[in-house]
Amino acid sequence: MSLRVTDRAVVSQTGNVRRTNEDSHLIREPLFMVADGMGGAQAGEVASRMAADEFAGMDVAAGDGEATLRHVITRANQRIVERGRSDPSAAGMGTTVTAALVAADGRIAFANVGDSRAYLLRAGTLQRLSEDHSLVGELMRAGQLSEAEAEHHPQRNVVTRVLGAEPDVEVDTFTLQGEPGDVVLLCTDGLNTMIDDATIGRIMADGRSAEATARELVRAALAAGGEDNVTALVFRLDPGDEPTAAVAPDAAAAPAAEDGETARTGRLPSIGMAVRVALALIVAGALAVGAVVGLRWSHFVGADQTAGRVAVYQGLPVELPFGVRLYRETYLSPLVYATLPAAERRRLFDHRLRSSADALRAVRTVEATAP
Fold first, then answer.
1. Which end of the chain is more exposed for a tag (fewer CB within 10 A), N or C?
2. Is residue 343 within 8 Å of 139, Cβ to Cβ?
3. In the chain, how many domains are there?
């Protein structure tokens, strides 16, 4: 039985906090991708768009899906690195990328770098397919952080592998055999940091069209706060003999139009938001007493996402709603956290409280041996 993509859609929103949308996406059947840019000014938007442009020109009929995706991502990384070095306004820019390529026999090749995700809904059950290349992802895999702790970790958005950081980039690739009725979601972290996997699975299992599903996913993320750009790309596989037609690259790569209804829904005050505000105030009050003491003595090693470097913070690794932080940066190291071996990052970013001297000693020990 042959399989083909019978429905597809993408919705991308700036969100309730950010001023610009640095996400990019591409639908060029049988190729699908999303990218989440980062960097100063509008450099993140430039990086994610460069990645999308590279995918727009790839040979979608190539035989080895994983090798093809890996090659395109490697080439996009080189272009972004070169642009960052030659253009001061783009220095330090980077982007995540997650892509899927559907073969004629229904096999789906995936590739990802960073913390944009791929999900699969099969027979009503949601599976997370990709692995986050992020600080909290590494801590969770090392058993140093629970999933609940990761959801509120102050540096949950710090990625440890991106396009644009180094001339060489490690790309995760894998292939699975599609089945009739499979629904695939590619999304940026503005979705899964706002709503949990259970909510994502429930929305995807409702049996709606790809467009309605994508819109509802984005609407839910906006209603939950919309603290980041959010992009949801959904496609469905069903039996069929007709080959999928390629979508014109220029049209496919264009940003999704802002959906007025979705944007309004994400910004309207609601009972749920009022409850969250009340709970946040209660939690803040309960933490206040402990924080007064803890903020003075406690330090921890973390990552300065803006600078891309290791840092020492005074306070508690807690971030309350509405951007209230119980910590401040006291030392910025020359160490670039994305270039450290994973084992070294786990030793530094171990999520434990230290004295100021102990935290500085741990960082400077690595500085002394780093190239």
1. C
2. no
3. 2
